[in-house]
Amino acid sequence: MLDKFLLQGPEDARFTILLAHGAGAPMDSASMTAAANALASVAFRVARFEFAYMAARRTSEGRKPPPRAETLNPEYEAAIEGLGASSPLIIGGKSMGGRVASMVADDLHGRGKIAGLLCLGYPFHPPGQPQKLRTGHLRGLTTPALICQGTRDEFGTRDEVQGYDLSDRIEILWLEDGDHDLKPRKTISGFSSADHLATMAKAAMAWAERLPV
């Protein structure tokens, strides 16, 4: 069993980022680890945690399916309290983890608990079901947010997302030919996964430095 949080990056970092995992992969998956490493490399303090259903998969309880995203809101808020970050806190995560963070963000930002929201591969809709949008709460979002999205992400491509009604507090970093893990096809795009993660991390730091903290 892993500790409650996976921590990396400088302890005296200007910003802390709390990241939750996606629906199907744990906090120490290859994708989450690569993203966390990239963010730590630009001097973020990065903390990763798992929702209870995912942590249970590490035990004899077996593989539990993910619950409805909104039911995880209290767990995310408990993780924030448990972390007790000493520097301005940015919340977010990969796919579903970022979606959950986005649903609790405005209340926390309004109370001065967080500085911003970072989503890596936001699940705008289920794959193959573009009519089932998960954007209702994003129209009126008041928390400063950065969404890092691959242009061919099956949960929301650039062509699709450009037509959505989203809050002007949301900035989107488009990563050419990236999939849901921000991974491009190098022979087509000319970029590697490492290239895109480095771009994501640098953009996240530049965005964070503009936050009113």
How would you portray this structure in words?
Helices cover 31% and strands 17% of the residues. It has 213 residues and is α/β, with parallel strands linked by helices. It has a single domain, classed as Alpha/Beta hydrolase fold, catalytic domain (Rossmann fold, 3-Layer(aba) Sandwich), CATH 3.40.50. It has a 7-stranded mixed beta sheet, sandwiched between helices. Strand 6, helix 5 and strand 7 form a beta-alpha-beta unit. Helix 1 crosses helix 7. The chain is globular. The model has no long low-confidence stretch (mean pLDDT 96).
Note the main attributes of this structure:
single chain, 213 residues, alpha/beta, Rossmann fold, seven-stranded mixed beta sheet, 7 helices, 31% helix
Topology:
Elements: E1 6-8, E2 16-20, H1 30-41, E3 45-49, H2 52-56, H3 73-83, E4 89-94, H4 96-110, E5 116-120, E6 145-150, H5 158-161, E7 170-175, H6 186-189, H7 193-208
Parallel strand pairs: 2-3, 2-4, 4-5, 5-6, 6-7
Antiparallel strand pairs: 1-3
Helix pairs in contact: 1-7
Q: Which second-level CATH architecture applies?
A: 3-Layer(aba) Sandwich
Strands, count: 7
Give the ordered list of helices and strands.
EEHEHHEHEEHEHH
Proportion of residues in β-strands: 15-25%
Query: What strand line-up does the widest sheet have?
Result: 1-3-2-4-5-6-7
Based on CA atoms alone, the radius of gyration comes out at 16 Å
Percent in helix: 25-40%
List segments where confidence is low: pLDDT < 50 over at least 5 consecutive residues: none
Query: What is the total domain count?
Result: 1
- Report how far apart the termini are: 35 Å
CATH class: Alpha Beta
